[in-house]
Design a protein that fits this description.
The protein is α+β, with helices and mostly antiparallel strands. The chain has four helices and four strands; from the N terminus they run ααββββαα. It has a two-stranded antiparallel sheet with strand order 1-2. A two-stranded antiparallel sheet has the order 3-4. A hairpin with a 5-residue loop joins strand 1 and strand 2.
């Protein structure tokens, strides 16, 4: 599937939130079950692409691990946080440390790594895209 067709597929899902989603005062994120429909599609696509440890969380975050290409194991991890709004900044303006993404999502992305390697990789801010 080409990029345009994939994009059109994704935007066909009705993922709007519900302002009246709380009946007991507790905030529910995401606010509708239909938001999980797209999350399940993304999870399945990441699995089909061969990513490892693909997860769809209770808050509808979807992520997976793409193993390093042989010979590139020493490369850095890059984190991104995109606002849920229109933006026209260059991609590198959204680059953050993996630690920043972990704090925002409450997800430990590299639990299998030894702590000294994990801490170094997650704390480093990549300055330029590869």
């Amino acid at each position: 599937m080409n990029v345009k067709d994939r994009f059109l597929k994704y935007v066909s899902y009705w993922t709007t939130s519900d302002d009246n989603h709380s009946t007991d005062g507790a905030v529910r994120i995401p606010s509708t079950d239909r938001q999980f429909e797209l999350g399940r599609v993304l999870r399945d696509e990441l699995n089909a692409l061969g990513l490892e440890k693909v997860v769809l969380t209770d808050h509808c975050y979807v992520y997976g691990m793409l193993p390093a290409t042989t010979g590139c194991e020493d490369k850095k991890a890059i984190g991104f946080i995109f606002p849920n709004s229109a933006g026209h900044k260059p991609l590198k303006k959204y680059m953050v440390t993996v630690d920043s993404v972990e704090k925002r999502t409450d997800i430990d992305f590299f639990p299998a790594l030894p702590d000294e390697i994990e801490n170094r990789i997650e704390a480093e801010l990549v300055q330029e895209l590869p």
